[in-house]
Amino acid sequence: MNPYALLETINDPADLRNMPEEQLGELAKQLREYIIEIVATKEGHLGASLGVVELTIALHYIFNTPDDLLVWDVGHQAYGHKILTGRREQFHTNRQLGGISGFPKRTESVFDTFGTGHSSTSISAALGMAMASNFKGEKEKHHIAVIGDASIASGMAFEALNHAGVSQANLLIILNDNAIGIDPSVGALKEYLTNIKVDRKLAKNNIIRALNFDYSGPIDGHNLPRLLKELKRLQKKKGPKFLHVITTKGKGLRQAEQDQVRYHAPGKFDKNSGELLPKPKGDLPPKYQDVFGHTIVELAEKNANIVGITPAMPTGSSLKYMMEKFPERAFDVGIAEQHAVTFAAGMATQGLNVFCNIYSTFLQRAYDQLIHDVALQRIPVIFCLDRAGLVGQDGATHHGVFDLAFLRCIPNLIIFAPRDEVDLRNIMYTAQLGLSDPIAIRYPRGRGKNLDWKKPFSQITIGKAKQLSKGNKIAVISIGTIAENVSQAISILSAEKQIAHYDLRFLAPLDSELLHEIFKQYQIIFTVEDGVLNGGMGSAISEFTTKYNYNYQKVVSLGVEEQFIEHGTVEELQQIVGIDPKSMAKQFERFL
Ligand SMILES: Cc1ncc(C[n+]2csc(CCOP(=O)(O)OP(=O)(O)O)c2C)c(N)n1
Ligand SMILES: CC(=O)[C@@H](O)[C@H](O)COP(=O)(O)O
Ligand SMILES: [Mg+2]
């Protein structure tokens, strides 16, 4: 028997709306199983989508999507939405090269009204749409933002609530409260939401009502009849409305419900048993995040001034190790990158050695704080920027490819990219000894290459580059872990004697002395980075040539040209960008 017989009758939410209410329970079951079956082998975000299966069906059933506009915050929970809105057959390509995106994407479907990936944007976007509808006289249109309990605690969401509460916008905010983000939710708002659930009388006079919203809930988000009834009621109401829905992350898969952190994005698992597939046997080099996580603990054991900060990514950044060992010295501040940076600055003014760990892509949120609150005042915060460079399947919203470019123009900021695990350890060691300026240390997602990485610490000289190998024809300058691809390219060509390889290490301050040596010795200079070329390391070297009149040298820069890179494996994306070993070898060969 076809387990997806009912699901397969739906190619558009219009089909769904023709279905009798009694069949929706069976549809929810099939949709859940379909998500589990595909994610088990293709990987991706699991728990969040499983938790909103009933909500997704109810929303498309009651509202007239895509005319009514539905915005999913973060968008990692939108798999059910994708499947019900014409992408069931493509869903097996989710997050694969050339396949559909793991997040809502406007170019992919009219049902994806707003592209997401970074959190806490949905209320602003839906409010903008609602105000636009008012301008256009489209009074009947509904605008719905679905936002999680961790995402609503972010500053941007608060700003939007504050604005929406005094608007005439026909806006429905649905708080999908499962009491967890990737890691357990934190903060006073989270405590308040928990209290509301325990003592429903508190819901009567609550913070959301105080902001002028028509508040209802909390209601059980897995109870379809209850959801449908409430959405029908809200459909008739005008103005800003707020529905508080309680759900279970991972609903329907025992392991995903029990270990919600692991099953947020579990990797491959057995679709029948739910068990994670065994890891490959044998020792593997460490993940960079774990080099950070274990090293900060090691340093903190000796230096009582060290504190650590993460905005909502204790597991992803591995700051969780410090949170376990020194709970009073490690802070998860929630999805609050702006606050994290200024909070770090405040602590550092008081003489603490503050490690502020933020994914490169999420630091984009805190650019002004970095400039105004940190660099301008020369406050020596130690930023550890994880997931720098191409991150793979999360795609365009998450690649950390802009950091070198957006950091380089900030005065007083030291910028370092470790070439390997040992470099990362040593720069962390160096930074906590005390610097007079802030430092940004950027390193990639995934594993390094050394099993033997826990070497004794040694101090790194700020602003000094390193020659990795000698050669007589061309020079290649790389920064960060992409050096490994350069080394492989040189071996592919057996050009060890012809290609000199330098690791720039510091994008700021630049090692001008070594650069002068390079420019005096070579006419062809390649630069290689896993970031955007506009403004990045290649730009820095080109500016150097102009500044010092190196007119006879040719600089060829490899990196991300002017485009957003989509999703795929890191290796596939490196090939597209031309920074994989083979593509680089071809480029170098032209000049040998
Ligand atoms: C600006 C930003 N910071 C951090 C993240 C990483 N992140 C993705 S999902 C998530 C947790 C979201 O939790 P919640 O809003 O409660 O949704 P749930 O996963 O529970 O459905 C976090 C921290 C992000 N996507 N965007
Ligand atoms: C949706 C989101 O932003 C996170 O779940 C992100 O996908 C985590 O990325 P890592 O898997 O690199 O930790
Ligand atoms: Mg949540």
UniProtKB/TrEMBL annotation:
GO molecular function: 1-deoxy-D-xylulose-5-phosphate synthase activity; magnesium ion binding; thiamine pyrophosphate binding
Domain Transketolase-like pyrimidine-binding: 286-451
Source superkingdom: Bacteria
Catalytic activity: D-glyceraldehyde 3-phosphate + pyruvate + H(+) = 1-deoxy-D-xylulose 5-phosphate + CO2
A single Gene Ontology CC term: cytosol
Pathway in which this enzyme or protein is active: Metabolic intermediate biosynthesis; 1-deoxy-D-xylulose 5-phosphate biosynthesis; 1-deoxy-D-xylulose 5-phosphate from D-glyceraldehyde 3-phosphate and pyruvate: step 1/1
Key words of the record: Isoprene biosynthesis, Magnesium, Metal-binding, Thiamine biosynthesis, Thiamine pyrophosphate, Transferase
Organism this protein belongs to: Galbibacter marinus
Annotated protein name in UniProt: 1-deoxy-D-xylulose-5-phosphate synthase
Family matches, as Pfam families: DXP_synthase_N (PF13292), Transket_pyr (PF02779), Transketolase_C (PF02780)
Comment on bound cofactor: Binds 1 thiamine pyrophosphate per subunit. Binds 1 Mg(2+) ion per subunit.
Family named by the database record: Belongs to the transketolase family. DXPS subfamily.
CDD domains: TPP_DXS, TPP_PYR_DXS_TK_like
